[in-house]
């Protein structure tokens, strides 16, 4: 008799706070919070680095990844929009890390990474 192999955990982004992984330690970076309701995923991104504000809305896939559209307002007033395929995974510390494979409306593309952070203390 063999033991059953456990199903891998599908990461759930609901209520989780994230920040952009900075290339240089100590750099101010954007942060935000993800939400999920069934197969609907959305996020708000807050100021940090070159970002003033941003929003994302997408559709959760069966494997836990999601396809989304986003719109960002930079600190200099530029609008950035595009689509992404986001793949959440657990890192070796048990925190969520998301690889965002993006394609912007201007034709540029790439991959950025965001990682889970503790909920920030926000002034009201």
What does this structure look like?
By secondary structure, this protein is an all-beta fold. It has strands at about 15-20, 30-35, 40-50, 50-60, 65-75, 80-90, 95-105, 110-115. It has an eight-stranded antiparallel barrel with strand order 1-2-3-4-5-6-7-8. The chain is globular. The model has no long low-confidence stretch (mean pLDDT about 90).
Characteristic key phrases:
single chain; 124 residues; mainly beta; eight-stranded antiparallel beta barrel; 56% strand; globular
Task: Give the topology, please.
Layout: E1 17-20, E2 31-37, E3 40-48, E4 51-60, E5 66-74, E6 79-90, E7 96-104, E8 109-117
Antiparallel strand pairs: 1-2, 1-8, 2-3, 3-4, 4-5, 5-6, 6-7, 7-8
Radius of gyration: 16 Å
Percent of residues in helices comes to under 10%
Strand order of the largest sheet: 1-2-3-4-5-6-7-8
Strand content: over 45%
Q: Identify low-pLDDT runs.
A: none
**Main β sheet profile:** 8 strands, antiparallel, barrel
SSE run: EEEEEEEE
Strand tally, please? 8
Overall morphology: globular
SS class:
mainly beta
Separation, N- and C-terminal Cα atoms: 58 Å
Mean pLDDT, all residues: 89
User: How many H/I helices?
Assistant: 0
What's the short version?
The chain is an all-beta fold and 124 residues long.
């Amino acid at each position: 008799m063999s033991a059953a192999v456990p199903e891998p955990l599908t990461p759930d982004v609901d209520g989780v706070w994230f920040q952009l992984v900075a290339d240089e330690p100590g750099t101010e970076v954007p942060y935000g919070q993800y939400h999920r309701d069934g197969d609907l995923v959305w996020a708000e991104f807050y100021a940090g680095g070159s970002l003033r504000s941003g929003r994302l809305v997408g559709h959760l896939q069966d494997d836990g990844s999601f396809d989304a559209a986003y719109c960002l307002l930079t600190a200099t007033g530029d609008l950035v929009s595009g689509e992404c395929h986001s793949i959440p995974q657990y890192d070796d510390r048990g925190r969520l890390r998301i690889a965002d494979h993006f394609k912007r409306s201007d034709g540029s593309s790439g991959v950025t990474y965001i990682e889970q952070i503790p909920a920030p203390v926000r002034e009201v």
